[in-house]
Design brief:
With about 200 residues, the protein is an all-alpha fold. It is built from nine helices and no strands.
Length: about 200
Amino acid sequence: MAARDPLPEAPQSQPSDARLLLVSRVDPDAFRVLYERYAVQIHDYHRRCSRDADAAQDLTAETFAQAWLVRARFSDDAGGSAAPWLFGIARNVLLMSVRRRRLEQAARARLGLLGDPAAVAHDSHEPDETWLEQLDAALAELPDGQRAAIRLRFDRDLAYDEVATALATTPQAARVRVHRALHALHDRMTQAKEAGR
């Protein structure tokens, strides 16, 4: 009887995204595989939305960093695919970036620091990290009540009556705290700007 040719081996099936995320809890290489599957698609999404190649790189990195941090919370709701989950994270990262840029521009406008053409031109690309660090430092120097009021008013975009409720005070007192905080921040940021010249 003639020997038969051996049957070709069936190709090994690739692990699902859900499986990779499960394994990535103990084996980081599994997450690398997931990254390689989706990095180009996520980057293309961010590039389309931001219209900025550099920003798209940063947003893609942030998307996968966030995915890594919350990978244990992944719920397989798409038949093993992580695409909807990853694009949901990408969308949140993009929205947070846009919101942060708007907050930065609003803060600059309210602090009267939009007169610098170089700063305005820079705004159209990405947040100025040095300026944000100076603002964070100035915020940290405010009294607790003023810092809380300004964060509620601008970070959370609350109306003055909502700020007052959150701080257990009156709307008028909330306005005073915000006004004083803005005045103090303006002074500190102007001093920092002049010192940097």
